Fold:
Amino acid sequence: MSTTPPLARVDAWAPEAGTERVRAAFTERFGTDGPAPGVWSAPGRVNLIGEHTDYNGGLCLPIALPHRTYVALRARQDDVVRLASAQEPGSGGVELRLADVAPGTVDGWAAYVVGVAWGLAGQGHRVRGFDAVVDSCVPYGAGLSSSAALESAVAVALDATFGLGLAGPVDAPDDAGRTVLAAACVRAENDIAGAPTGGMDQAASLRARAGHALLLDCLDASVRHVPFDLEAQGLALLVVDTRAAHALVDGQYAARRATCEAAAASLGVATLREIAPDDLDTALDRLAATSEADVAEVAVRRVRHVVTEIARVEAVVALLDADRVRDIGPLLDASHTSLRDDYEVSCVELDVAVEAARSAGALGARMTGGGFGGSAIALVEASDVEPVAAAVAWAFVAHGFTPPAFLVATAAASAH
Ligand code: ADP
Ligand code: MG
Structure:
């Protein structure tokens, strides 16, 4: 094992390049007649810590990625929507009417686009039809939220195109308005695309700030921008896209949600957020006594993950506030252990990536996103990015896994 396997890097496009690309694709698709389209873009995200906490009214701490989804969009006078995406060449473009959009009526990727228009209409905003073309450098299905990047890009595009006045100007984003846009995107994803996600992704894509992590309180959707400038500290956040695809992801996600909701109900709280870390043992004892032993045993572990994970978010934020970034490593490690053993949403590829990164000197590493594949993150000294990536790539070779892809995450700007 002397030479390094080739490292697949997923670099973010320069904004001008992404804009040019999607504008050219629009012209190719819809011709040069009529007014030029506007171009908007929105980032994918990576969550530093706080996993599977959003639907429990908890805390999470994502950053927006420099990797963005671009949309070129032009209003129509009728309620027809025509769409194409460079990432979905096989779909050959989609055409439908907004009046026909309702839960269960839209298949495939178009649901993430027209679902946003439907979500905005449901809030009382007037949105007409549009022509749109999408292109993106956010890895697909990698746990980096290409879905929220698409929704959020469409949300700010529709906001500007139909004069909804929600997003605010680039240099002075309107956080309250963006919270409304994020809610429309969540409706799109939950009700039209049929994916029961919790709200972190859309908040990160629409409300994060460059150079900061977004502390999101999912109980009331309030946020705080926590300084997060790794470069200044000589550090880097390496993201490993395991490219592992596991079936049953949606079913597992829904099952975790259902377990948490049932546990909260049996403990007499609205969400698991209400269980303070100091009361955890008492709550777990009560939970253990409420149902049959095997059901209770699982519920106990799920609740323990959620409550301890929320506490870890608070601990990480305290360290970041104290300018002690290097010290968050053990909390990242503990988060992974909790997700692997108590919440059972990791998989062998994620575990191997995390172990290999740590052995090669990462200060901390964990799976990120929903799990069962997707990505892992490793906090590393800037000079260790290459060796840690190489160690992970080697470990994947040794296990016979599909080669992973790598990207270096910096806290980038939200949708505009
Ligand atoms: P993730 O959000 O982690 O990348 P998801 O399964 O939530 O994974 O979302 C991926 C889905 O979102 C794709 O299968 C597709 O339907 C839709 N999507 C995301 N980005 C695009 C894009 N650029 N063009 C078309 N569809 C997209
Ligand atoms: Mg998604």
The CA atoms of residues 142 and 374 lie 4 Å apart.
